[in-house]
Automatic annotation (TrEMBL):
Signal peptide: none annotated. Residues 9-78 form the Cyclic nucleotide-binding domain. It comes from Streptomyces tendae. The lineage of its organism: Bacteria, Bacillati, Actinomycetota, Actinomycetes, Kitasatosporales. This is Cyclic nucleotide-binding domain-containing protein.
Length: 154
């Protein structure tokens, strides 16, 4: 069982802040199987998916990585860039061909510093994504490793 979609960029930020944030974006593409980042690595960027699917995974000792969530159009990939110690808490891999907007974390943090209202909106948006991803990870891990049916009992 997967949780409902996480807060996407169009719904998350007012138009003026969305436009300001998008001024710092560059377009990138990833073929299927490309690892965008690994759990524990340095988080210095993030992406918003235009097309395609990215899978978030978590390492589980003694097992293969566990699929936590699939992300698609307009969803945020990566939130660890905003919070110390700026290391990825999950891994991410392109499941299909992906086109995305890529953001340099340092540039976005500088924009947020210059424009406190933008900073508040970006922090709120990313915080909502973090809460959603935590819920998704909990449900998925309970589905896989908890007593039968535990993941649905939230």
């Amino acid at each position: 069982m997967f949780a409902p979609p996480s807060p996407s960029l169009p719904r998350a930020l007012p138009a003026e802040h969305r436009a300001r944030l998008m001024s710092a974006a560059r377009e990138v593409s990833f073929p299927p199987g490309t690892r965008l980042f690994e759990e524990g690595g340095r988080a210095d960027r993030f992406w918003v998916i235009r097309t395609g699917t990215v899978e978030l995974d978590m390492r589980v000792p003694g097992r293969r990585a566990v699929l936590i969530e699939r992300l698609g159009h307009n969803e945020l990939i990566g939130w660890s860039w905003l919070f110390s110690p700026h290391v990825w808490h999950l891994g991410a891999e392109a499941a299909t061909p992906v086109r995305a907007f890529e953001f340099d974390a340092a540039a976005v943090l500088a924009l947020c510093e210059e424009e406190p209202e933008l900073g508040r909106e970006v922090t709120r948006w990313v915080g909502e994504v973090v809460a959603h991803r935590l819920h998704s990870a909990r449900v998925r891990l309970l589905d896989l490793f908890g007593p039968y049916g535990a993941g649905g009992a939230l």
